[in-house]
Each structure stands twice: as C-alpha cells, then as structure tokens.
Design goal:
The chain is built from five helices and 18 strands. The chain is mostly beta strands and 335 residues long. It has a domain of 231 residues. The strands form four sheets. The protein has a five-stranded antiparallel sheet with strand order 1-2-5-4-3, with no helix packed on it. A hairpin with a 3-residue loop joins β11 and β12. The longest helix has 10 residues. This is DNA, SC103. It comes from Aspergillus oryzae (strain ATCC 42149 / RIB 40) (Yellow koji mold).
Amino acid sequence: MKQSTVKINDHILVNRANERQTPKHTTEKEGGNGPGSQAATKNWNVTRIRTNVFTNGEWPIIYPQKRENFSIGPEQSISTVVGLAWSPPGLAKYRRCVLAVLTSGLLLSFYDISPQGKWTRVAIVNDCLNSYFKSLIDDEELRLRKSNIRSFTWCPPLKVPIPEQDATSYAVPPPESRWGMYLLSVTNDDNDVILLQARRSTDPTSASLYSFEVLSLTSLYEHTENQNVQPGSIFSSALRNRARASFMSPGPWIYQPTKENKGVCSAIGNVAITLGVKLKMVRHVVTLILDNDQTDSAVKYKARCVSEENTSYGGLLNNYHLTGALHWIHTVSLH
C-alpha cells in the first residue's frame, strides 16, 4: 500500500492510497488523549495524528538538575515533531512499515495502525536506553541525559544471503533473506551513537509490541576548535561541551565472508553524523550468527556488532561548517 507522511508542528498527516476509492469522513482520537481527524479524497485517505500527548508514565516530569544535564529546551518544549521516518517494509504486522516519530522532547516513538484503522503509539525507544544504562550508570541525571534521543535513522535491512544452490529453486526464502533484520541508529544527548535491533514481539502476552536490543555504543567527541571563537577560552570550552549530533544518514551494507564458526554472514556499514558543524563517521561491523539456543522460533539469528569512529576519510571536510541534512549517494546492484 502506498503511503506518505507530512509533519505539521505537533501533528503528522498520514496519506494512504485509497484503493477502493470510497470516500469516508470519520474522526478518531490518538490513544484517547488527543483529537485527530481522517478525511478521504478520491485517491487518498488523510489521517491527522496528534503526537505530543504523553502519559506521565511515558514522559515523567523532569525536575531541575545540574547545568550539564539540564536545559530550558526539551524539558519545556511542547513536543513538536522534529523528525519522522518509515521503517523498512516487514517490521510491523502483515509486513507493513512502522512510523518512527522524534519530538522536540527528545522522545522517539513508534506508531502503527490497528485493525480498526486507528493509529496509536506502540513503543518508545527511550525506554530501552533507560533500561540499558540503568545497570551501567548510578547517576540518575546522567542516565536521563544518555536516554534522551537527539537524532535517529533507519539503516538498510540486513539480509541473510541465500545459498547459491537455493537461489534458483522454487522454495520461498526465509524471512531473514526476504525482509532482513531491522537496525535503528540513534544518538543521545551525550553524543553516543547507539545501534539497536528492533523486533516485533510474537508473544501475545508481551507487555510491549516491540522490543529493542543494544548492539553497540560509540562515543563521539568534538576535537576541533571553533574558528570564530578564541581557542582555550571559557566560551570555547562551553561551546565544545554543548555540541550535539543533529543529523544522521546510513550508508549501504557491504557484505564480506565471516570468520565466526557459527557465522552466517558479515557486513560493514558506515553512518554519517553531523556533530555540531562537523562531519563524523561511525563504522559498524555486524556479524549474524545462527542462534540454536533461542526459544523463540521466529528468531533464528543473533547479531553481534563491533563499532568505532571511522577517521579513514581523512577529515577532508574539517574546514567546512555543515548545517543541513546528510544523504549518501551510492548505487544499488540489481543482481
């Protein structure tokens, strides 16, 4: 099904192709918290979803904290939409796409459509980060800073190669080869680049429809001085400490033979990030391993990732100030 999205302040418009071309005029409320409306034209159904309404459990009250962990921005914002992106096909039920929405409150939410045609929030990625850092960091303020999400991007799905002897057969390839694994890259408020694997839960008794696993964490640092500020000054130090990652863009996966005994395949990918006004690169090496100990029959492979900051591009753009979105230019093989 064809669909697109448009962000308007604290709302998003989801445009879905109306295959039956039967105009409808209905209204709905997102999660019972905010008004939404759905209108149909001859070819499209347009659904208006309010995304800035959270329960206290989803977005707890943030009290004043230390200067390095607090600001007057996200905590006081009205949660306008600052970024959205569809997942690769296949993550949602019936192999649909999930809509990821980042709001100015630094919360990344997943939205999916119910069988009744109602769009609801089905997951908050920040909850995964909070649980991950809870076992590593005792400082609650620093843990909150590391759980806030500044930017995100969907990586291309990582697909298990089909064996050559099966490539020409009439057998249907497994889901890992048709749809792949879903990897989400995010940056937090402490300039950590975190690679997550997203899965849809197949357990009907599960508390959450989606689960996330942290595959790797890479910390970025601003090594260069601002040319417009006196080096070594207090102001220069303050600006360097406040540099944040604002844009991300993933490159293609480059497959290579794996050296693991149980390894199925290995792939290398790079993610470009704008840190302040400088370009940073993070290199991911992901290896898929056959997991025979997994109790969930839907999960056959386990992903292992080794990530590091990639400086091999030589810093050719160090003399430029980058302020906009990043995009990779690459070719896709049709073979």
